[in-house]
Design a protein that fits this description.
Belongs to the MurCDEF family. MurE subfamily. With about 500 residues, the chain is of the alpha/beta class. The chain has helices spanning about 5, 55-60, 85-95, 100, 115-125, 155-165, 180-185, 210-225, 245-250, 300-315, 320-330, 355-370, 390-400, 415-425, 435-445, 475-490, and strands spanning about 15, 25-30, 40, 65, 75-80, 105-110, 130-135, 140, 145, 170-175, 195, 235-240, 255-260, 270-275, 280-285, 290-295, 340, 345-350, 375-380, 400-405, 430, 450-455, 465, 470. The strands form four sheets. It has an eleven-stranded mixed beta sheet with strand order 9-8-7-10-6-11-12-13-14-15-16, sandwiched between helices. A six-stranded mixed beta sheet has the order 17-18-22-19-20-21, sandwiched between helices. The protein has a five-stranded mixed beta sheet with strand order 1-5-4-3-2. α3 packs parallel to α6, α5 crosses α10 and α12 runs parallel beside α13 (about 390-400). Bound molecules: ligand UAG, adenosine-5'-triphosphate, 2,6-diaminopimelic acid (API) and magnesium ion.
Length: about 500
């Protein structure tokens, strides 16, 4: 692509050498993966500053550099005020602004993003739409899956996958949008049609300065709604009115709203919610009509997820009857309240709860149904928010009768330090078993008929990350193996 064309949507930039004849083959923000003929964009990261890698990039074939400050180099330099935003814009231009021609739904909030995106996928597929999905578990383009490193990839990868979706005749792209992604401008080049806010509770305060900064990052999705090149299309913000910070999100957007909730008046509401051992029932009401939902998804938190998904589907002209069928026959999401059944006479649930709020929601749901005692196996991730550790431990003690603290991706931290953070000033009885497999075995062996064992924190993950190395580890697989061997030699 001609460099001039690549830069056409940038409001302001300066160049150090003429670029009218310059053509670029690709764009990269990493000097280590630059290809011959690429534009290198310098990003100031958390660990290092991309401006320090200009020479490496040029040595590896970069034909131009985009940066925020003048750098001494032989190739043309494009100076911009903010390389993060500029990168998102040139990435969108390079891939032909794919988000303009797709119906794009973005979901943000502390908990529920993955679940809502999967519910939306089930609804749209049932309505014979071709979907694309970007999120924690995987990226999916018209049914073909790709592995992921982050919940929301970097700006270049996002635009690349959106363009693959466009080529694969995807109608609707459904994307989880993390607070890191919003803060780092990864989705700045996406023209969202619908933005959903789930909830905001404590997480990621290692990265964001405080709760307000975390909120500010999340609200950027709503602030950017309607600012795309294709802003002629209707845009909507879908807001959970039961969240204590709903008003802050409403104030952050200029676009029309659709609200949902259970306790506060909203456009889409759930009434008469009832939890059963096999799922949840409720009446879903819209301004026009109502339907009874009888879904296999467990818990009130999943009712919120269904309301949010219903709102986005209705705004996308999907009939309520299709939404009802999708909810009633939902397959659920891997590692989200996933039962493990090997013929044992007690319940075993694997769930991705890794925040105080999600852990409490899941344990509360179990407490409503469990006729025996509750066992929980849980840990806290290393190199992540330390402030959530004592809170998660308190939640475990509050709701469970038997608590085992164990490892959950210690990463570069010492598991002992993580346990110390979790249990400092903690009142109550608990065990610490560092090996997650041993912890799961101990909990399963201690359970009796009618009890429930919750294995929390890793959900769909298939690894345990220790000192930068990912060892294969799958909670469901391990629980099954132990349950089978207990059956063989009771
Ligand atoms: C904390 C965080 O978000 N870090 C992200 C960030 O890394 P960073 O700022 O440390 O980057 P850096 O290493 O300082 O490098 C700065 C720049 O210099 C470049 N560089 C660096 C070295 C070199 O030799 N040459 C070079 O050009 C880098 O490519 C980069 O452009 O920018 C990188 C490039 O986009 C991301 O890969 C990286 O995500 C890391 C892997 C990560 O773990 N992120 C997690 C915390 C995350 O984003 N999580 C969210 C939320 C999860 C959820 O709760 O749902 C997610 O969306 O996944
Ligand atoms: N609406 C909700 N409110 C509170 N907790 C929820 C909600 N939905 C799901 N959860 C809990 O949070 C966990 C994570 O759910 P999910 O994966 O859908 O969220 P997420 O926002 O995608 O999380 P992540 O940021 O880690 O990707 C679930 O396993 C469940 O315990
Ligand atoms: N997206 C989240 C996932 C946390 C999952 C938990 N198993 C952990 O490793 O802390 C994060 O990277 O903070
Ligand atoms: Mg997710």
């Amino acid at each position: 692509m001609k460099m001039k064309k690549l830069l056409e949507h940038l409001p302001f930039y300066q160049v150090t050498q003429p670029i009218s004849k310059l053509t670029v083959q690709g764009i990269s923000m990493d000097s280590r993966s630059i290809g011959p003929g690429d534009l290198f964009v310098c990003i100031r990261g958390i660990k290092v500053d991309g401006h320090d890698y200009v020479q490496d990039a040029v040595n590896n074939g970069a034909v131009a550099v985009m940066c925020e400050e003048r750098v001494d180099t032989s190739v043309p330099v494009i100076l911009v005020n903010d390389t993060v935003r500029a990168l998102a814009m040139v990435a969108s231009t390079f891939y032909g602004h794919p988000s303009e021609s797709l119906h794009v739904i973005g979901v943000t909030g502390t908990n529920g993003k993955t679940t809502i995106t999967y519910l939306l996928d089930e609804i749209f597929c049932r309505h014979k739409k071709v979907t694309g999905l970007i999120g924690t578990i995987q990226i999916c383009v018209a049914g073909k899956a790709y592995p992921v490193k982050n919940t929301t990839p970097d700006a270049l990868s996002i635009q690349k996958y959106l363009s693959m979706m466009k080529k694969s005749r995807v109608d609707t792209a459904i994307m989880e949008v993390s607070s890191h992604a919003l803060d780092q401008g990864r989705v700045y080049g996406c023209d969202f049609d619908i933005a959903i806010f789930t909830n905001l509770t404590r997480d990621h305060l290692d990265y964001h300065h405080d709760f307000d900064d975390y909120l500010r990052a999340k609200s950027l999705l709503f602030a950017q709604l309607g600012n795309g090149y294709n802003s002629g299309r209707d845009k909507y913000a879908i807001i959970n009115m039961d969240s204590p910070v709903a008003k802050r999100f409403i104030r952050s957007t200029s676009q029309p709203l659709l609200t949902y909730g259970i306790n506060h008046r909203a456009d889409i509401m759930a009434k008469d919610c009832m939890l059963k051992e096999t799922g949840t029932t409720f009446t879903l009401t819209t301004p026009e009509s109502e339907v009874r939902i009888d879904s296999p998804l467990m818990g009130l938190f999943n009712v919120y997820n269904m309301l949010a998904a219903a709102g986005a589907a209705l705004l996308s002209d999907i009939p309520l009857s299709v939404i009802q069928q999708a909810f009633n026959q939902s397959r659920g999401v891997r590692g989200r309240f996933e039962p493990v059944r090997e013929g044992q006479d007690y319940g075993v649930v694997v769930d991705y709860a890794h925040t105080p709020d999600s852990l409490e929601n899941v344990l509360k749901t179990i407490a409503e149904l469990c006729t025996g005692q509750i066992h929980v196996v849980v840990g806290c991730g290393g190199d992540r928010d330390r402030s959530k550790r004592p809170l998660m431990a308190q939640v475990a003690i509050k709701w469970a009768d038997h608590v085992i603290f164990t490892s959950d991706n210690p990463r570069t931290e010492s598991p002992k330090q993580i346990f110390k953070d979790m249990t400092n000033h903690l009142q109550g009885t608990y065990k610490i078993i560092e090996s997650r497999e041993d912890a799961i075995e101990s909990a399963l062996k201690a359970a009796y008929q009618g009890d429930v064992v919750l294995i929390a924190g890793k959900g769909h993950e298939t690894y345990q990350e220790i000192n930068g190395v990912r060892h294969h580890f799958d909670d469901c697989e391990i629980a099954r193996k132990i349950l089978r061997s207990m059956k063989e030699s009771p």
